[in-house]
Batch of 3 targets.
Target 1
Amino acid sequence: MTAADGLEGLANLLATPAQLSSSSSSLDGIPADLETSIRFAGALLTQAAGVLLRLPQDVVAQAIVIFTRFWIGPDGGSLAIHSAKDVSAASIYLMAKLSFHPTSPRSVLNVYSYLLSKEASPLWFINPSEELEDNPKPESYYLSEGGYQTQRLSLLKMETIILRTLGFNTHVVIPHTIALTYLQTINTTGSALAKRVFEHLNASLLSPQLLYVTHQPNALAVASIYLAAREVGVKMVEEEWWEVFDVDREELGFLVVAMNSMEVFSKSERDVWSGTPIPLTVESLEAELAKRKKAQDGE
């Protein structure tokens, strides 16, 4: 991964073309569409956990970026070896610990026990039926003391694996604050516009194009402002204002299209996995692969 020269403080490490062309999961025989779906579900799981843990969105966003980075390239983590749910939990625990809002292993594991419960989880990719009882039984997501101690060791081990895989580089710049600064700079403000900008930035964390590891935060900020202004009906200056923030027209166009496609992508994922949970463990992934092979052999 590379960072923009001279902008280390406001830039992120970006995935190289070689890293994007192949992943450890693909080398282990995981189909690209399945890998995309699991990354998508893992990012959604991380977001939901962050909300329940009452963490600021910037910490949650950083955790999702770390989760995404972990799977990048042939030297990254493989879904055939590491469960996405474990990487998600360790990512949010790690980034919370490095922030002003640390949270305990017990809190993280209790939240994940609830979110991963097929009887109690409100998440569609865990509980596809989405038919929840008004008061689901606590037994369905209760984490015993023995279970906690075992999972705590696994959480800390996964944290170490993530750090080693990323070369202990956990620097993540989130574009949200940058976007607000740009809005003030070009004298374009408004709660509706700012809200829509943030919506696009948060949705882009789930992008199948991996926008947060392929583009710098200043470009993400500019693209979200450009798209949000068109949607909200805010008139921008006629000049090519994005060039002031070091973003060219080609990059802006790609990002706008990618951000604009997130709603369609999300809906298509729900359609593809309708009635079936997305595999977030190694065991469930193996079962899904066996199911696909059986279906293919039967054709």
Target 2
Amino acid sequence: MNAFFAQLMAGLATGGIYASLALALVMIYRSTHHVNFAQGEMAMFSTFIASMLITAGWPYWAAFFATVTIAFAMGAGIEAVLVRRLRNAPVLAIVVVFVALLVILHSLAGWLFGYAIRPFPSPFAEAAVAGGLLSPHQLGAIGVTLLMLALMYVFFRYSPLGLQMRATAENPTSSRLVGVRVNRMLALGWGLAGAIGAVAGMMIAPVVFLDVHMMSGVLLYAFAAAVLGGIGSAPGAVAGGFIVGVLENLLGTYVVGAELKLSVALVLIIVVLVAKPSGLFGKAVVARV
């Protein structure tokens, strides 16, 4: 029984990381209605920047916030330079561009930082918590995810910028007519997604170590979390992340084995898309023809 609870708690901790990246996917989907397949590589690239700053002697939290700022600028820059020009392009063309961006960032990170696996520090203390079932970093990752969800809720619910972003996501044309600067709102959405992805990368790097391949499997789990919770719902992404983390740990340990853990995410995506495409917290969209 103790082993079961240990796997359950570890799944919740892992799910917190999946939820962070799923939040970034939701941010971009809500603003552009497209899935950014390069989100994981953007997070990985940002984490390498954080490692470079820490190695140069920066305190952890100074490097953390500097990296979040750089990731925000990188996300907004990608939207302004690349995505904005594809706004009226066919869906397949946009998918190809996102996949190309994934490959470019992956190769660029390998060229700049190398392919060696390196450790990444955790900002949390080493003492065991929760009766030894959770490490301080695991508990801290859960807390960071919930804090980001709370900040996003306050931002979208109470701030003028959040209201303008919501309006832009719902109806860009009407938003322009009432004076909303739609291009700025879309760039802001991509910037926030880049910042959230950077946080996810810095939370997972101490667990899996830092290398150019670190986010490949994580992105798949995060996508499964976003689909399960509802690709347009931020609370759904967080809930989906925790559910996927628990399912991955429990099924990987007691049912399918560690070698087939990745298939859990694939099966989950297929089941949700077939049974309930809108996800647990998403809203079904009905269009009158």
Target 3
Amino acid sequence: MQSSRSFHSDGASKEALHCEIEKLKQKDLALDQETAQLLAEGYSLEELEKHISLLHEYNDVKDTGQMLLGRLAVIRGVTTKELYPEFDLELAD
């Protein structure tokens, strides 16, 4: 027999999942609309897919660079921020 507490918890979990699903559906719709807008502006799907692929590659390289800066900062006993000028990086980089 399920206690009222676990029932309430399961209900709350189901509600949270339902909300998350709805948010993802809305995000999917917004992305579809954005894609349609870009296509209407003359971009091709292949061009958009290539752009997305390049953005993923850029983010992977940036993440790797951040990880290396973090490790170097630990070795030197400084903050990552302190290394930025040495490598001509801006904080927004």
